[in-house]
Amino acid sequence: MTARWFAVPLWQRVLGGLALGVLLGALWPEGAAAIRLVGELFVRLIRMLVVPVVLVTIAAGIAALGDPRRLGPIGGRALGWFAATTLAAVALGMACGLILRPGAGVRFAGVAPHALGTPPTPAEQLLAIVPTNIVEALARGDMLAIILVAVLLGTGSVVAGEAGRPVTALLQGLAAVLLQIVRGVMELTPFGVAALVANAVASGGAAVFVHVGWLALAVVLGALVQIAFHAALLRLVVRRDVARFFRGSADALVVAFSTASSSATLPVALRVATDRLGIERAIAGTVLPLGASVGKDGTALYVGLLGQFALQSLGVVPDMTMLVVMWLTGALAAFGTAPVPSASLFMLAAMLSAVGVSAEQTALVVGLVLPFDRLLDMTRTVPSASANLTVTALVARAEERAALAAPPPAG
Predict the structure, then answer these.
(1) What H or E segment, with its residue span, contains residue 165?
(2) What is the pLDDT of residue 406?
């Protein structure tokens, strides 16, 4: 029986849990209340993982850049472009959320709309980034401080060179262990989703799924606009034929959609870049593996959008300071997200915590979205794959210009 259960793909089991939760909440509301403990335990497991996942994955991602090939001129240009497209993607996701307002009117079981109070001033936000006590910041779940600690830890491991290698190995080992724990928790998702959805339907009715439909529409529109942004870069900076470029990239984009994983797309992307797009193998072999780690336009777009969805569902109207903080923390969180399906949901807390949303409220957002996340993940992985190939072309073009500008060898 156990073997049969695990033989069914997780996303299908999650959909089964979703269907069971809807039926239970609609037909037997008292039963939904009886299994509420299961949903709460699932929420606590997610909360337990948020801080270590954010700290370790961001630090490990930065420490992994210690490979000299990645820290040279090619790696520097690639990181610059990845940072630019990621920041643009977060801004685009936030804009889609503010315009389409998919979270307006959503009601979560047990959560009422509320204001967060007077937001801190920019100076207070800046001071809060630097913790006076690292352990206390970790215990409180202060995400801005945790992100700073992660960045410093990863950067210090790189700068330390040979002496920092044991720390880098430790971080990468911890990241691998945490990833296995996350996968274990994800196996419990069908049960947690059934309980959370049952309570949501019992409290607010099936109308809650209308808002998820609006969220899905916003993801699709945002992905298309982000790919159009990549096309503009290819046309204006690289001077490439956009239609030919994306025809050549089709295999990688299809694999990205079907697997919802940047890592799984990497082998196909390498072949596409060298064989169909005519990019030098040394450049593709440096930029694309780096992109599998930090090139997360789709995740950045989704985190920005889901952040606005969450605020709207809680009745919070963000001011400019909150939007800027969400923009910056969303980009950093996207950079540190593991290249596996649904990993971005665990990084959402980094953005929301920075503007005062509690871990419990974030977990409720995750519980609502998670049953549909596989399809949304497939959609948003496509702009990530598009970004990786676009940045590779941008770096290749920059290398060509640098070679032309270099003085001829003496003699």
Answers:
(1) helix 165-187
(2) 55
Instruction: Please give the pLDDT value at position 119.
Output: 43
Residue-level pLDDT at 112: 39
Outline where 64-142 has alpha helix (H). 68-71, 73-100, 122-129, 134-140
By the 8 A CB rule, do 82 and 294 touch? yes
The residues, ordered by sequence, that sit 6+ positions from 144 with a Cβ below 8 Å of its Cβ are 125, 128, 129, 325, 329, 353, 354
Q: For residue 260, with 0-12 CB atoms within 10 Å meaning exposed, 13-18 middle and 19 or more buried, which class applies?
A: buried
Of the two residues 18 and 330, the one the predictor is more confident about is: 330
CB distance 33 to 110 below 8 Å: no
Helix (H, G, I), strand (E, B) or coil at 108: strand
The rounded distance, in Å, linking the Cα atoms of 285 and 287 is 6
133 burial level (CB within 10 Å; 0-12, 13-18, 19+): exposed
Averaged pLDDT of the chain: 78
SS3 content of the chain, % helix, strand, coil (to 5): 80, 0, 20
- Six-digit token string for 164: 């920092």
Q: What is the pLDDT of residues 358-394, one digit of tens each?
A: 767 777 777 777 666 766 777 888 899 999 999 999 9
Q: How many Å apart are CA 372 and CA 384, to the nearest integer? A: 19
Predicted local confidence at residue 342, as pLDDT = 59
CB atoms under 10 Å from CB of 104, counted, come to 13
The Cα–Cα gap between 229 and 235 comes to 10
- Is the four-CA dihedral 39, 45, 48, 54 of positive or negative sign? negative
What the block records as the tokens of 395 is 């770096």
The Cα angle at residue 197 between residues 323 and 350, in degrees rounded to 5: 30
Angle of the 36-63 helix axis to the 189-204 helix axis, nearest 10: 120
> Per-residue pLDDT for 235 more than 60?
yes
Contact yes or no for 201/105 (Cβ under 8 A): no
Q: Which two tokens stand for residue 279?
A: 């990019």
